[in-house]
Write a structure and sequence with these properties.
The complex is a heterotrimer of chains A (234), B (263) and C (276). Chain B contains twelve helices and no strands. In chain C, helix 2 runs antiparallel to helix 4, helix 5 packs across helix 6 and helix 6 packs antiparallel against helix 11. Classes of the chains: A alpha/beta (234), B mainly alpha (263), C mainly alpha (276). At the B-C interface, helix 4 and helix 10 of B face helix 4 and helix 10 of C.
Chain lengths: 234, 263, 276
C-alpha cells in the first residue's frame, strides 16, 4: 500500500506475502511524481516509487523505455524537471546533490585505459574517501577479477570491463547499489557469483536496483519488479 | 562506388560542414564589411584589394589563414576516428573492402575540406565583385600584396587579377583537402577525435615557425597558401610540399587498409 | 577536501601523464635563447653591447611578442609566429582534458565525489596549475639557457641591449615593472583565457573553443586594446613602453575578473547539467 496514487506493484515473488508498510520517508528511496523531458521528448512521466533498504528491485522494459534514465535520476546525474527523489529523508538536488552512499554501474563502464583495474578503482575510492585498499581488492575478487592483474583496462575483454564496473559499484558496500544490465557479457559462472554477491548485499540491508532483460534472472534476484513503458511505471 | 557515395552523402549532409562554411564566411564578411566602412565606394579601390585573400590591411586575412586547417578538418576529418572508436568500421569492413572504405573516407574528407575553405573565399569574391570593379592593383598603394616579379604568378596578379584570385582559391581548397586527408591518416594513432582533427593545424603552425626563412624561398605551408604571399615562394616548393604530403598520406592509407587488424 | 582529491587526480591525469606537452614551452624557450644570443652576439661584434647580457634580457627578448601594429602598406601585418605558437600551445594543453573527463568518466567521478562544485573547482585549479607550470618551464629554461650562454644571473636588464632593440622607453623600466609585464601578466592573462576556453569547450565544442582562442590571439596581435586580451601577454604593448599600449594593472584586474566570472559561471552551469 502506498499513500500516493499511481503506484503499483506489478509482480510479487511466489510464496511471499506483501506486508503493508507505513510509508516512512526517512528510509530508502521515495520517488514522487518524477518528470523529465530531454529535447522535447518525455523521458520520465510522473514516476512514483518507494524502494526500501534490504530489498532488490528489478526494472524491466523495452529498449528506450526509460530504465537507464530512471537510474540516472536516482543517482543524481539527471536533474528532474518536476517531482522529487527523497533518499533516506533527504531530497535530491535540494538537501543533497548526490545520494550519500551509492555505487552504480550505468551503461558501458568507462575507466582510464592506461591504468589497471585495481588502480582505477583505487583512484575512485580515494575520491570517495573511506574505502581501504583491502576493500578495493575484495570488490575485485568478489567479481572474479584478480587485484594483482597487471593488464591495463585497455586490454580488458568486454566481460572483464563489465566485472570491473560491478566491482566499482559494490566497492565499499554502499547503501544503494544501482546496476544497469550487469550480467550482460558475463559467463555463466560469473553470473552465479554476481547473483550470490547481490543477495549477500541485500541481506546486509542494502538497497539494490537492477535492470535486466533476462526475465528469469530478474525474477530470481528481485523482490519486486517494476515494468516501465515510455517513462511510466505501468 | 556505393561506399564512396555513402561517405560523400555523410560528409555533405553533416552539420559541421555548414558550421565550418559559416565561420569562414563570417570572417570574410567582416573583412569586406570593414573594407567598405573604411573606403566606402572609393573609385581608387579595386576587387583584388577588397578580397579577403589579398586584403592585407586588416586582421581577417591572417585570421582566416591561421584557422584554415581547422575549417578544413572540422566537417568530416574526425569521422574516421569516431568510426574506429564506436566500432562502426567493423560493420563496414565485413560488408565492403577496407581499401574501398579508406579510399572513400579520404575522398569525402578531401572534398568536404576543399568545399569548407573555398566557399567562403568564393562568397567573399562574389561580394567584393559586387562592390568594387575588377581593375589592376596600384603597386604603390599595394606594395605588398607582396607580389613582386619573383613571387608566384605576378603576371596574373598584374594582368588578370580575377584569375589570380580563382587560382589561389583552388590552391587553398587543395591544401585544405590535403589537411583533411592528413587528419584521416593520423586517426589510427590518435587517442581522441580532438587530436585527430587538430593534427594538421599543429603541423601547419609548427612548420610555419620551423621552415620559415630556412632557405631561399619559403617551405612553410602557412605562407604558401596565403594569396598575399608574405614570403617568397617558388612554384616547385609548393608542388614538392604538396606531393610529398599527399604521397605519405596515400601510402599510409593504403598500407593500413591492407594490413590493419580490425579489433 | 574533495576538491583537493579531485585536483590530485587531475594533476596526475591532466598534467603528469601529459608531460610531453611541456616540450613545447621548452622548445620555444630554447629557440628564443638561441635567437637572443645570436642577436646579442651580433651587437657585441659591432660594439653595441659590452657584456653577454643578463637573464632578464633573455626573458624580455623571448616574451616580447610584437610592437603595437599600425597599418602601413609597406609593413604588412604578420602574426608574430613564435609568440602565437607559445600561446596556442597553452590553449592546446587546456583544450580537451576537461571535456573528455566529463564525457568519458563523468558518471563515475560525480558518483564517487558526490559534489559537482568540487569537480569544477578542481578543473579550475588544474587549469591554473597547468598554465603556471607551462610558463615556469619556459622561464626556467630561458634562465638556464641564458646562464649557459654566459649571461649574468641578474634580473636587471642590459639597458644598451634593450634600448637598441626596443627603444628607450623599454630600457627605462624598473625591475618590478619588467617582472610584472614579462612574467606575471602573461601568465595571469593566459590563465584567464584558458579558464574561459575550458568553460566554452563544454558549451560549444573543444575544437570551436580552441578556434575562438586562436582568433582572440590573432586579433590581439593586430589590435592593441584592453579587450584584446592577447595584448597583455606582449610586454612591448604595455603602456609603460608605448603611449598606445595597454595598462598592465588593468590586465591583472581583467584576469582576476575573468577568472572569478568563469568560476561562478561554471559552477552554475554544472549545477544544472545532466550527466550522461
Amino acid at each position: 500500500m502506498c499513500e500516493r496514487d499511481g503506484y503499483v506493484v506489478l509482480f510479487k515473488k511466489e510464496g511471499c506475502t506483501v506486508n503493508s508498510v507505513t510509508v516512512n520517508k526517512t528510509d530508502g528511496i521515495h520517488i514522487v511524481d518524477l518528470c523529465k523531458k530531454i529535447k522535447g521528448s518525455v523521458i520520465l512521466d510522473h514516476v512514483n516509487l518507494i524502494m526500501k533498504p534490504g530489498k532488490i528491485y528489478g526494472l524491466r522494459g523495452k529498449n528506450g523505455s526509460g530504465k537507464t534514465m530512471l537510474m540516472r535520476a536516482v543517482c543524481g546525474l539527471l536533474i528532474p524537471d518536476d517531482g522529487e527523489i527523497i533518499i533516506n529523508g533527504e531530497t535530491l538536488h535540494r538537501d543533497i546533490r548526490f545520494p550519500r552512499s551509492i555505487g552504480a554501474l550505468i551503461e558501458n563502464p568507462s575507466f582510464i585505459p592506461e591504468y589497471t583495474g585495481y588502480r582505477n578503482l583505487k583512484m575512485l575510492a580515494s575520491l570517495e574517501g573511506g574505502i581501504s585498499d583491502s576493500e578495493v581488492c575484495k570488490a575485485l575478487s568478489r567479481t572474479g577479477l584478480d587485484p594483482d592483474d597487471s593488464r591495463t583496462f585497455r586490454k580488458y575483454s568486454l566481460g572483464m570491463k563489465q566485472k570491473l564496473g560491478i566491482a566499482n559499484a559494490i566497492m565499499g558496500e554502499p547503501d544503494i547499489i544501482v546496476l544497469d544490465e550487469p550480467i550482460n557479457a558475463l559467463d555463466e559462472e560469473t553470473v552465479g557469483v554476481i547473483k550470490s554477491e547481490l543477495i549477500k548485499l541485500r541481506d546486509k540491508g542494502k538497497l539494490i536496483i537492477i535492470a535486466c532483460h533476462d526475465r528469469e534472472e530478474l525474477e530470481y534476484l528481485s523482490d519486486t519488479i517494476y515494468e516501465i513503458q515510455n517513462g511510466r511505471i505501468v | 562506388m556505393r561506399t564512396l557515395k555513402f561517405e560523400m552523402n555523410r560528409a555533405f549532409h553533416g552539420k559541421w560542414l555548414y558550421i565550418s562554411i559559416l565561420l569562414g564566411t563570417i570572417i570574410a564578411a567582416l573583412d569586406l564589411g570593414l573594407f567598405r566602412i573604411v573606403y566606402g565606394s572609393d573609385k581608387g579601390k579595386v576587387l583584388i584589394q577588397a578580397w579577403l585573400g589579398t586584403n592585407y590591411q586588416f586582421v581577417y586575412n591572417s585570421l582566416f589563414y591561421v584557422l584554415m586547417p581547422l575549417f578544413a578538418c572540422l566537417p568530416y576529418a574526425g569521422t574516421y576516428f569516431s568510426d574506429m572508436d564506436s566500432g562502426y568500421d567493423r560493420n563496414i569492413c565485413v560488408k565492403t573492402s577496407r581499401f574501398s572504405y579508406m579510399t572513400s573516407k579520404c575522398v569525402a574528407s578531401f572534398a568536404s575540406g576543399f568545399v569548407a575553405v573555398s566557399i567562403p573565399l568564393l562568397l567573399d569574391l562574389y561580394g567584393a565583385a559586387g562592390l568594387y570593379p575588377d581593375g589592376k592593383p596600384d603597386k604603390l598603394s599595394f606594395l605588398t600584396a607582396g607580389i613582386i616579379d619573383s613571387y608566384l604568378f605576378p603576371e596574373l596578379f598584374n594582368g588578370r587579377p580575377w584569375i589570380y584570385i580563382l587560382l589561389f582559391i583552388f590552391i587553398d581548397g587543395m591544401f585544405a583537402g590535403l589537411f583533411a586527408v592528413m587528419s584521416v591518416c593520423i586517426s589510427r594513432w590518435s587517442r581522441n577525435r580532438f587530436s585527430a582533427v587538430m593534427f594538421p593545424f599543429v603541423v601547419y603552425v609548427l612548420t610555419g615557425v620551423v621552415l620559415d626563412g630556412v632557405s631561399d624561398g619559403c617551405w612553410s605551408v602557412l605562407q604558401m597558401v596565403n594569396p598575399e604571399q608574405p614570403s617568397v615562394t617558388y612554384m616547385y616548393q609548393m608542388v614538392v610540399v604538396y606531393m610529398f604530403t599527399a604521397c605519405v598520406s596515400v601510402m599510409v592509407t593504403w598500407f593500413y587498409s591492407r594490413r590493419r587488424d580490425v579489433l | 577536501m574533495k576538491t583537493l582529491r579531485l585536483f590530485r587526480r587531475d594533476l596526475r591525469l591532466g598534467l603528469v601523464d601529459k608531460w610531453y606537452i611541456y616540450l613545447l614551452p621548452a622548445v620555444f624557450a630554447i629557440s628564443q635563447v638561441v635567437r637572443c644570443h645570436t642577436t646579442m652576439h651580433g651587437m657585441k661584434d659591432f660594439g653595441g653591447v659590452a657584456s653577454n647580457g643578463t637573464v632578464m634580457d633573455y626573458i624580455l627578448y623571448s616574451m616580447q611578442g610584437m610592437e603595437v601594429y599600425n597599418f602601413d602598406p609597406r609593413n604588412p601585418f604578420i602574426v608574430p609566429i613564435y609568440w602565437f605558437v607559445f600561446q596556442i600551445g597553452a590553449a592546446y594543453m587546456m583544450a580537451y582534458y576537461s571535456y573528455d573527463d566529463l564525457a568519458v568518466h563523468g558518471r563515475l567521478i560525480f558518483l564517487s565525489s558526490r559534489d559537482r562544485g568540487a569537480w569544477w573547482r578542481s578543473k579550475c585549479l588544474w587549469c591554473i596549475t597547468g598554465i603556471i607550470v607551462y610558463f615556469a618551464v619556459a622561464y626556467v629554461i630561458i634562465a638556464v639557457g641564458a646562464l649557459s650562454m654566459g649571461a649574468d644571473s641578474s634580473m636587471c636588464m642590459t639597458r644598451s641591449f634593450i634600448s637598441s632593440l626596443f627603444g628607450v622607453n623599454a630600457a627605462a623600466l624598473s625591475v618590478s615593472e619588467q617582472i610584472l609585464m614579462a612574467c606575471i601578466l602573461p601568465t595571469a592573462i593566459t590563465i584567464a583565457v584558458s579558464m574561459l576556453q575550458v568553460l566554452m569547450s563544454f558549451v560549444l565544442t573543444p575544437v570551436i573553443s580552441f578556434s575562438c582562442v586562436c582568433a582572440v590571439y590573432v586579433v590581439s596581435a593586430y589590435y592593441t586594446k584592453w579587450y584584446a586580451w592577447g595584448s597583455y601577454t606582449m610586454w612591448l604593448r604595455s603602456s609603460y613602453v608605448t603611449d598606445e599600449g595597454v595598462y598592465p594593472w588593468g590586465g591583472i584586474l581583467t584576469s582576476i575578473i575573468i577568472c572569478i566570472l568563469v568560476g561562478f559561471a561554471g559552477r552554475m552551469y554544472f549545477s544544472n547539467k545532466d550527466i550522461y
